[in-house]
């Protein structure tokens, strides 16, 4: 420690003022070093992996200042269409979707504007039930504007549901709609399934990989045919249940008469009115082989 002895020897040969200056400088340097230490030691280090997934809705909501999405769909409609919309909302809910439908979300004491704002902000999809009544209502116009703004920003998807014939606004008309006009029975159920699939982000699957005939072809597999042949003295008629062909007989020759009388035991032949008795004979339907017909 020779250098410490030399430093001490130099220090004691200074006058009092110089010694005070050296001590002050030393303490100022130590204070600066201590402040640096305390500043960096209080910072929380970043984790090893800081990759944030854009699909993480909770992280996206916190960083963007928006509430986390909790509903699959927000339904905007005119109250004149409420009976129809209520059934639609129930069907969507029964399918497993979380639905913001105002009747289910609002109660006494709630602030209407705050509830509507929260419903739009917390829904992945917005459904606008389009009808002449809806497009004229101020509340529906405001809800449509809010949903369209979010759709343009990529924060929400808007799906028009066409209930009645109406002229849609240009921006809304640019979106594919689900057509419920005059939909009833199986057609209505098909449209509901189509809407549910759209809300879930599903797309129609391609058809099975198999060859199919061209549309409007004149050929098809006919299958087994059944025809009826009626023979009378003045007319012969062939019928297949939908079409008939007839002609004038040339009379029974000896060979055909022998054939008819040779099968007297066949129960399918009615001989009560055989030509020999002055009337006609009837041959019941017989199964024909399968053929392919052109129509």
Describe this structure in words.
There is one protein chain. The chain is α/β, with parallel strands linked by helices. It has 2 domains: 137 residues, Toll/interleukin-1 receptor homology (TIR) domain (Rossmann fold), CATH 3.40.50.10140; 76 residues, no CATH class. It has 11 helices and 12 strands. Helix 9 links the parallel strand 4 and strand 5. It is elongated. The protein starts with a helix and ends with a strand. The C terminus is likely disordered.
What's the layout of helices and strands?
Layout (H helix, E strand, L loop, with lengths): L1 H11 L3 H26 L15 H8 L6 E6 L5 H13 L4 E2 L1 H4 L6 H10 L1 E8 L1 H5 L1 H15 L4 E6 L7 H4 L4 E2 L6 H14 L19 E5 L2 E6 L4 E4 L4 E4 L6 H9 L6 E2 L10 E7 L3 E4 L1
Parallel strand pairs: 1-2, 1-3, 3-4, 4-5
Antiparallel strand pairs: 6-12, 7-8, 7-11, 8-9, 10-11
Estimated radius of gyration: 45 Å
CATH architecture of the largest domain: 3-Layer(aba) Sandwich
In what range is the share of β-strand residues?
15-25%
* Helix fraction bin: 40-55%
* Arrangement of strands in the largest sheet: 2-1-3-4-5
Can you count the helices? 11
CATH superfamily of the largest domain: Toll/interleukin-1 receptor homology (TIR) domain
Main sheet characteristics: 5 strands, parallel
Give me the CATH fold name of the largest domain: Rossmann fold
Overall geometry: elongated
In whole angstroms, how far apart are the ends?
118 Å
Low-pLDDT runs: 42-63, 275-295
The average pLDDT is 75
Provide the succession of SSEs.
Answer: HHHEHEHHEHHEHEHEEEEHEEE
């Amino acid at each position: 420690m020779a250098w410490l002895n030399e430093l001490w020897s130099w220090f004691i040969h200074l006058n009092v003022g110089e010694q005070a200056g050296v001590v002050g400088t030393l303490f100022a340097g130590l204070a600066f070093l201590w402040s640096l230490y305390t500043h960096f030691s209080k910072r929380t280090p970043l984790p090893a992996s800081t990759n944030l997934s854009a699909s993480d809705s909770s992280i996206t909501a916190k960083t963007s200042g928006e509430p986390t999405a909790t509903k699959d769909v927000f339904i905007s409609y005119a109250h004149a269409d409420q009976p129809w919309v209520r059934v639609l909302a129930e069907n969507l809910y029964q399918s497993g979707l979380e639905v913001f439908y105002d009747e289910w979300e609002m109660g006494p004491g709630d602030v209407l504007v705050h509830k509507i704002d929260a419903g739009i902000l917390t829904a992945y999809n917005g459904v606008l039930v389009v009808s002449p009544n809806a497009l004229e209502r101020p509340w529906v116009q405001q809800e449509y504007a809010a949903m369209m703004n979010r759709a343009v920003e990529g924060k929400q998807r808007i799906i028009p549901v066409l209930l009645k014939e109406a002229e849609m606004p240009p921006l809304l008309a640019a979106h594919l709609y689900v057509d419920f006009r005059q939909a009833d029975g199986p057609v209505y159920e098909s449209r509901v399934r189509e809407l549910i699939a759209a809300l879930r982000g599903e797309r129609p699957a391609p058809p099975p990989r198999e060859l199919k005939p061209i549309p409007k072809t004149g050929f098809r597999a006919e299958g087994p045919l059944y025809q009826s042949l009626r023979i009378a003295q003045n007319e012969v008629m062939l019928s297949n249940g939908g079409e008939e062909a007839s002609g004038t007989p040339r009379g029974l020759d000896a060979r055909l008469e022998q054939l008819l009388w040779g099968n007297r035991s066949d129960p399918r032949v009615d001989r009560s009115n055989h030509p020999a008795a002055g009337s006609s004979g009837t041959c019941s339907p017989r199964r024909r082989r399968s053929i392919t017909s052109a129509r």
